[in-house]
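Researcher: Here's a chain I'd like modeled. Treat it as a single chain, no partners, no ligands.
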Amino acid sequence: MLAAAFAAAAGWSDWRSRRIPNWLTVSGLLLGIAANAVAGGWAGIRESLLGAGLGLIILFPFVMLRSLGAGDWKLIGALGAFLGPGHLVTVLVGAILVAGFMALVLIIWKKRVGQTLRNIGKMLGAFFTLHLPGPELTLENPEALKIPFGVAVAVTVVVYSARQAWGVWQ
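Model: Modeled as a single isolated chain. Structure tokens:
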């Protein structure tokens, strides 16, 4: 439940300001490591560090391509410290699905389906020609629709934690 409270705070921050501050992610990382140390000793610390490292490694390419913000990246690293690598992968897949649903709703609501399909075509073209897509397809484009990924992560972690507490996912 500590991870859920941390994720909810980060999600709230991302919703309100579209930022997840360093003081929150760094303290979350340290709290996750400390909680796992208390719960599992050295083995807990190991799992915590593996989870944090895995989250940071998996999402690093997306940060470098400017398709994911650094605050979101650090949030996943801190959650990895709380959850460990096994649970983090499940939460990350869930968060990607929630973010995808959020994006789909936003694209339809803003009537940007055609532009989105053209952008997907540009991304596929860049992928198959082994080039990076242009700057118009990054978070730095002021006209780009942006999803607060921290909100998707928060929803996923809260649901995942509740289901674990109720014994639905073991």
